[in-house]
């Protein structure tokens, strides 16, 4: 066979194999869109993140100049948008092939509650170090214990009363053995004068630990480890409430 005939046969064979091959050929194109959002009265970072179906952490990362979740009406925020991928695909299917079923899990209400609790804890951690202020309800002024709790839950769309004694009436009671991150722990008689009223609240973060705004030496927002191993707290423990998934 001469060289010309050999090349002709090779070209024909290559074309035949390409047509018969079951391998998918895909072309992928991606595009990135930058978005901005102007803050409206009453907005919170959590609500904006939900509006655009993104995580609170990604929204915070895209807006590093926003400190302690403080935003104001008229402010322009950067909204991160994941690159969109378009697939153009041709594939040879076997006649008896069964369509692939979706394997995307359906989110349960329990999972949604756990995710919301984690977002609340994330906001609380971001406020760590804010000083204590009697009657304080914002990072700008400082927090007292119930002002801290009210602020972080309001940020995530959960309205709570102003004082610890009133917050102790919201939601459903939780047994000590059933505590979950995001639950509220309440204490009585934490003032210098004797009282049987609920006077202190802390946010349970798991493993026996809480985050709270402490008036001791005006330490403010801080994590307290193994709180109920401390005799002072243990003797004043009143109970816990679930205000997220109740």
Task: Outline the secondary-structure elements.
Elements lengths: L2 H18 L4 E7 L3 E4 L6 H7 L4 H7 L13 E4 L4 E7 L18 H18 L10 E2 L3 E2 L1 H11 L8 H4 L4 E3 L9 E5 L9 E9 L2 E6 L5 E5 L6 H6 E6 L4
Helix pairs in contact: 2-3
Structural account:
The protein has 246 residues and is an alpha+beta fold. 29% of the residues lie in helices and 24% in strands. The chain is built from seven helices and twelve strands. It has helices at residues 3-20, 45-51, 56-62, 109-126, 145-155, 164-167, 231-236, and strands spanning 25-31, 35-38, 76-79, 84-90, 137-138, 142-143, 172-174, 184-188, 198-206, 209-214, 220-224, 237-242. The strands form four sheets. The chain has a six-stranded antiparallel beta sheet. It has a two-stranded antiparallel ribbon with strand order 1-4. Helix 2 crosses helix 3 (56-62). The chain is globular, with a radius of gyration of 28 Å.
Radius of gyration: 28 Å
Mean pLDDT: 80
Number of helices: 7
Secondary structure: number of strands:
12
Shape descriptor reads: globular
Instruction: Give the end-to-end Cα distance, rounded to a whole number of Å.
Output: 84 Å
Low-confidence stretches: 16-30, 85-107
Kindly name the structural category: alpha+beta
- Reading the helices and strands in chain order gives HEEHHEEHEEHHEEEEEHE
Going across the major beta sheet, what is the strand order?
A: 7-12-8-9-10-11
Largest sheet: 6 strands, antiparallel
Helix content: 25-40%
> In what range is the share of β-strand residues?
15-25%
């Amino acid at each position: 066979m001469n060289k010309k005939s050999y090349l002709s046969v090779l070209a024909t064979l290559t074309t035949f194999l390409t047509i018969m091959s079951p391998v998918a050929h895909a072309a992928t194109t991606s595009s990135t869109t930058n978005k901005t959002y102007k803050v409206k009265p009453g907005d919170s970072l959590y609500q904006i993140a939900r509006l655009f179906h993104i995580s609170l952490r990604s929204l915070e990362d895209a807006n590093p100049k926003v400190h302690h979740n403080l935003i104001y009406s008229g402010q322009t925020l950067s909204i991160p948008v994941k690159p969109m991928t378009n697939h153009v695909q041709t594939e040879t299917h076997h006649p008896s092939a069964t369509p692939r079923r979706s394997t995307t899990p359906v989110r349960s209400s329990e999972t949604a509650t756990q995710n919301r609790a984690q977002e609340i804890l994330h906001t609380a951690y971001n406020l760590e170090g804010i000083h204590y202020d009697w009657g304080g309800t914002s990072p700008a002024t400082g927090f007292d214990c119930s002002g801290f709790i009210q602020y972080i839950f309001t940020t995530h769309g959960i309205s709570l009363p102003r004082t610890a004694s009133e917050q102790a009436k919201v939601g459903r009671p939780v047994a000590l053995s059933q505590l979950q991150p995001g639950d509220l722990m309440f204490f009585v008689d934490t003032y210098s004068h004797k009282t049987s009223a609920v006077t202190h609240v802390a946010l349970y973060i798991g493993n026996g630990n809480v985050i709270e705004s402490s008036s001791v030496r005006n330490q403010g927002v801080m994590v307290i480890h193994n709180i109920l191993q401390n005799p002072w707290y243990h003797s004043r423990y009143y109970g816990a409430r679930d205000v997220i998934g109740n």
